[in-house]
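Review form for a predicted model. The reviewer records the input and the model, then writes brief findings.
Reviewer: anonymous (R2)
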Amino acid sequence: MSAPARNSFAASRLVNPPGAAPLLTEEQVWKGLGIKARKPETFVPVITSCEVLSDEGNKIVRSVSFNNGAPAIERVELHDYTIAYFELESTGMRVTNVLSYDAVGALVLTFSFANGIPGGTEGKSVADLNAMAGNVIGHTIERIRELVVQGAI
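Model under review:
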């Protein structure tokens, strides 16, 4: 029996799991998410082009292409050190990146997907979705870590 299709999902990962180096600060992760908002191609492999149409600091409108497809308008809203919203106008799909702390004070990054999950969900279990989302979160964290090592953050 296959799992029912889901339209929304969220997953979290530790920013600094055991063995991670260098350890990232809240400020570094937030700066990285700001770069991701403006230059997503370096974070999200399926985004093949991006043009920032307007940038008011915490509100960004961009035209993005996925897998070399037709451009789509995406609105980004940043709430310092906590939340980044990404919403595609054409589909209403909303991705939320939340930077928070767990019960013991460890930095956590959560991605939630609403009104659609990239890659679809048909026949995928919660474990499959968690692994998919976890890979995306992990890639984002590692890209930020690379930018810190390179001195770009």
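Findings: The CA atoms of residues 73 and 89 lie 6 Å apart.
Further findings: The chain has a mean pLDDT of 91.
Recommendation: see findings above.
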